[in-house]
Amino acid sequence: MNRDQLINSLQKIVGQPYVLVEKEDVIVYEQDGSIFQVMPEVVVLPAHVEQVSAVVKVAKEANVPIVPRGSGTGLAGGAVPAEGGIIVSLARLNRILKIDLANRIAVVEPGVINVDVTKAVAKEGFFYAPDPSSQAACSIGGNVANNSGGPHTLAYGVTTNHVLGLEVVLDDGTIVWLGGEVPDMPGYDLCGVFVGSEGTMGIVTKIIVRLMRARECVRTMLVIFDQMDAASQTVVDITGAGIIPAALEIMDRTTIEAVERGAPVGFPRDAEAVLIVEVEGLNEHAEQAIMRAREICERNGAREVKLAKDEAERQRLWKGRKGAFGAMGALAPNYYVQDGVVPRSKLPEMMRRIAEISKKFNLRIANVFHAGDGNLHPNILFDMRTPGEIDRVIEAGAATLRACIELGGSITGEHGVGLEKKAYIGLLFSEADLNAMARVRRAFDPDMRFNPAKLFPSPATCGEIRLQPGQIPAGLWI
Amino acid sequence: MDANGHTQRGGEKDGIAALNLPELYQCVHCGLCLNQCPTYRALQLEPESPRGRIHLVKAAAEGRIDLSERFKDHLYLCLLCRACESACPSGVQYGHIAEAARAQLGPPGSELGRGVLKFVFTQLLPYRRRLRFAFAVLRFYQRSGLQRLLKLFLPKKLREMEELMPAIPSQFFKPPAGIAPAIGPLRAKVALLDGCVMPLLFGAVNEATVRVLRRNGCDVIFPRRQNCCGALNVHNGETAAAKQMARRNIDAFLSADVDTVIVNAAGCGATMKEYNHLLRDDPVYRDKAERFSSMVRDAGEFLANLGLVGELGLLQMTLTYQDPCHLAHGQRIRSQPRQLLQSIPGLKLVEMEGADRCCGSAGIYNLTHSDMSQHLLKEKMQAVAATGSEAIVAPNPGCMLQLRSGAARFGPNLDVYHLMDLLDRAYSKAG
């Protein structure tokens, strides 16, 4: 099958307007939320599962790579077509198919926007728990692919804890269901295998998600610190005291500056760190927990503790926090975000190490992180147009990940491995571990055509990967 | 970059230096704008999203793609509603990017359409008398029976466009010659923008605005040498005449001895608040434009900050408020008009879903992209219907025309008001 035949077949399946081939169309799909760029040859936007299946069959026949894409908000290059080929955008599969409050589930298509699930059930007092910072834009399908977390992971766990079943299209176009509407289906937990597989096993076309009952009371406070050490120690002390908040988030001075420059919400610009503490539960419990957390904050030398007085104020705090990544553009043209994890007792030490790394490599690093579960997001700020800077950025990124592992942590909490961290996955897993994973992957995708060159370490073959504007850093693909 | 500002890269052409805007490098393509963009919501295509368009402009600036027809289609399918700017955590001013790209592309449409637009932008809008004459001719056309006759012969496309033409009122607005004096103690001296189509289609709104301002202790004047604000030009790739119009307005208003320049059309207000950007490279006018822009206030914004005085009469009605894009997104004004509405006794404000989403009017967009425009209008009217309102308020002439045509075409059957209409009515009810 040549290129024209391929395009022709795809047009027959989804209709001509939804097969993009012109350079002025496909070029916008060369990037996601990360710093990587590779142009796809074709972008296809199917409207329902049968079209997805037909597209997958054509791709198999033509033997071209196929890369599923949600909203393209990922931070690890997961939706960047590393080896070219076809991008299958699931954006048009954006229907909420069923809401079953009695059984607390919803069935949604992968292109449904995360926050829209909660919006659809909020009036009845329910919500969908995983809430990545990009939740106003990211898709449930993308969340499944990356097993996404979010600030409230601390209380509710990550995506896999909220997905009961998946309809997926396999490499030969077969449509199957993994898991189902009831928990604990017998047999292999293939639904669990699929969640977090980063598009390397097939394409998810329907998702059964768990809905949670909104809590009676939510209390949120902003705690202002003059020292990062004190802020991170406070997190250790709060969880150590047996209080399990719904969220514990820290932002450092540089991040505050970005937010306040980009879309201000009123964070104090002279603070070294702010901590957002959110607790929820029954009225009595929430009040008591927030008071205890407040005492711990004050004991650790907090300059000020501001309790959100109403929902509008609470929403404003979260808007600032959730816009933090996007706000990095207010400080620098590019940012490289890490997603390392350390045991939370090691947070103060890890923050000191990041400060050292920043100094050593002479790079500004903005920290914003899910402190409650030790999931760090150091954002290394830089300008791709400055020759040689990207090399230092990559080295600094590697240094933070090595530090995470030395302190007993991991290299990714929730963003996925994608292109970005595949070179480092060997730091965490042995060759035998990786081989076992590869065997599972091949069971689903024998030709390795689904989102190739992701997740697993591979030799330096990615000469085509373009880091805007066209410089390939030395040593990225170790 | 080389000395001429061209990006050089092996194997690729020179970029377009005029498009190499600092705003492009503020976008970190996080995607938070996607779901707020009306065209992306409708089509789910990345090239029809703010992030996509920014990437296209960046690619053109770097010489990776040409300013082809396809590129132009993407840039012009945008409504310039700037909802993406409200959503952007980095504060990227997308409007500046899109306007710069359109300035390179020229006006939208076919060869003929572009010619017509160019004529309107450079020969009609800057000249008040010509514009008045043109509208008088149109009024004759509508009232003489010629319209009904001609309709029979127009091709379908033209007939559809013709149907969008609003009925032209029998009276045009005539600005008062001198100062329209404040009623009661003097609180502010203000100058009002007359506008281009406002006095011709919405003369009553201008009259209401003057009355409401006077009631609130304002001396109101209409500087004589003012002209159209140039918003349509700037939005559609015509900048030479637009700059000329901006300079003329700056001269007219700065010499008027007032504290504030008041605008009752959201699109004009947004444009005039950004004259400092439009004339940033003009050594003579740069500073004056800076001063002028800082004096511009939307009428609702101004009155809410000033605080209403005098008694407002009872208006028993349930209504919903449509945020004009260039008020909510362009000027970040959301609470002030609502606050004013809620100060009217008896008036019940019911919020609709997506009140700050574009109605599809967008200047001349409803003519150049009628399919998308009608799609958005239909959605808007559904949201309006769900509120059970008997009226809708939208303080911008374009939105008012669009919503009127939406009410006629899709229902519900309701009245469309400007904020100043309602304040004026409430004041007159109180006597």
Label this structure with key terms.
heterodimer, A: 478 residues, alpha+beta, Uridine Diphospho-n-acetylenolpyruvylglucosamine Reductase, domain 2, Uridine Diphospho-n-acetylenolpyruvylglucosamine Reductase, domain 3, Alpha-Beta Plaits, five-stranded antiparallel β-sheet, 15 helices, disordered C terminus, B: 431 residues, alpha/beta, Fumarate Reductase Iron-sulfur Protein, Chain B, domain 2, Glutathione S-transferase Yfyf (Class Pi), Chain A, domain 2, Rossmann fold, 3 domains, four-stranded parallel β-sheet, globular
Could you describe the 3D structure shown?
The complex is a heterodimer of chains A (478) and B (431). Chain A has 478 residues and is α+β, with helices and mostly antiparallel strands. Chain A has 4 domains: 87 residues, Uridine Diphospho-n-acetylenolpyruvylglucosamine Reductase, domain 2, CATH 3.30.43.10; 118 residues, Uridine Diphospho-n-acetylenolpyruvylglucosamine Reductase, domain 3, CATH 3.30.465.10; 111 residues, Alpha-Beta Plaits, CATH 3.30.70; 113 residues, Alpha-Beta Plaits, CATH 3.30.70. Chain A has 15 helices and 18 strands. A 7-stranded antiparallel β-sheet of chain A has the order 15-12-14-13-17-18-16, sandwiched between helices. In chain A, helix 13 packs antiparallel against helix 14. The longest helix of chain A is centred in the C-terminal third of the chain and has 18 residues. Chain B is an alpha/beta fold. In chain B, the strands form 2 sheets. Chain B has a 4-stranded parallel β-sheet with strand order 2-1-3-4. Chains A and B meet through helix 2, helix 9 and helix 12 of A and helix 2 and helix 3 of B.
